[in-house]
Amino acid sequence: MPEMSETVALEAVPVSKGWEDKAARITTITPVLARVGKRNQLLVKLVTEDGLTGWGESGLSGRERAVSAAVDHFAAFLEGQDSRKIGRIWQECYRSQYFEGGRVLTAAISAIDIALHDVLGKRLGVPVYQLLGGRQRDVIPTFASTMGQDRQELLEHTHKLIHAGWDCVRIYPSNFDRGEVYSPRTSLPEIADDLKAMREAIGHTVTLGIDLHHRLSVAEAASFCNMLPSGTLDFLEEPIRSEAPDAYAVLRGMTDIPFAVGEEFSSKWQAAPFLEKGLTQFMRLDICNIGGFTEAMKVAGWSERFYVDLMPHNPLGPVCTAATVHLAAATPNFSWLETRQSPVENLGFHDTGIFPEQVQLEGPVYVVPDSPGLGVEVDEDAITKQDPTHVEAPHLRRPDGSVTNW
Ligand SMILES: [Mg+2]
User: Helix 86-95 vs helix 103-124: angle between axes, to the nearest 10 degrees?
Assistant: First the structure.
């Protein structure tokens, strides 16, 4: 043992490199801009020296070119590294620019991290969930959404979904998107009446939620909650923006409706106050935004500690769906995974021909794939046949001309 006053040069410590494997080194990491259905996605293709290919997806739809540039930055120092050092690679990407974190960077990290898990699963010949502790459930339950144009259609859609086996239905009110003007005072009473009619029609055995797309102020959100008799809603998704946890704390004290928040979180640090202060009752993390499997598993564990179930965000493509299915398979505290393919809605992300192999929805559940990796194949020729011209999300305004969230 050295004396306390002595220092030991790090170079002097013998380090075994025997666990490294040149064949597993990353050869290329390529951002791939793809039109998948109605939106563009930023996929990431990762190839290793021994010819394995992994795919990832970033969740920052609409600003995918910014993520693409971040992936290029990361590729510059990741190529040549051992693809199996997934946790270390996460740390190096997150912290390498000194100015750590932020949604653009973690969307890029997410895609790379998912691709690394895909490759490792293929290398070991196991599905990704085996890398996460193994399966905890047979299938992955989903919730479906309805964007019915009026109350009659909302009720028709809901009955159709229940008949097809869904036990959780979320409405995304269509009066959000009638033109570019959004007026809470016009919209909210109409939605509240729709929800009361839906609850009366379906009883309490079906879980009913609504996504308000963080368009409201605290006062507007509280007002909306007060329009609903207790028990009408089982979850209220994103009534306000999530940058200010203390604002959520104020709203939390004004209503007893459970909240579902988290699709925009880009780290465990953003999720932490929502769990520690009881500000969300469902964790809506998006594995393609929060930092891939590496970060999502940490947030899942932290959610379990607070008896909060995951209800992951999943409105994009088959790579995100597959990654989330593996996450859900390996997580004990899980409720429903968002699906956007159902008898009443299909955003067209799954039937583009780009993904000849992908996770399958059977009735209201996703089947957990047992093939090595994610269980997704990508047809790169099919990507080149699509036109990834930029798609800008709607820019909504209030009746007075000011900006509000889409
Ligand atoms: Mg949402």
Answer: 170
**Which residues are part of the catalytic machinery?**
213, 313
Does 390 map to a domain? no
The alpha carbon of 213 and the centre of ligand 1 are apart by a number of angstroms equal to 5
**Cα 96 to averaged position of ligand 1 atoms, centre (Å):** 31
The residue from 67, 102, 129 where one domain ends is 129
Q: What is the distance in A from the centroid of ligand 1 to the CA of 153?
A: 21
Distance of alpha carbon 352 from alpha carbon 208, whole angstroms: 30
How far does the centroid of ligand 1 lie from the alpha carbon of residue 288, in Å? 14
Residues with CB under 5 A from ligand 1 (ion): 211
Closest CA to 233 of 212, 215, 251, 216: 212
Residue range(s) defining the domain that contains residue 70: 22-129
Number of domains in the chain: 2
Distances (CA, A) of 271 to 82, 88, 90, 93, 299: 30, 21, 18, 20, 7
Q: Tell me the pLDDT tens digit for each residue of 153-165.
A: 999 999 999 999 9
395-406 pLDDT per residue, tens: 889 999 999 988
Distance separating alpha carbons of residues 311 and 142, to the nearest angstrom? 9
Last residue of a domain, one of 109, 129, 149: 129
Residues 171, 276, single domain; the answer is: yes
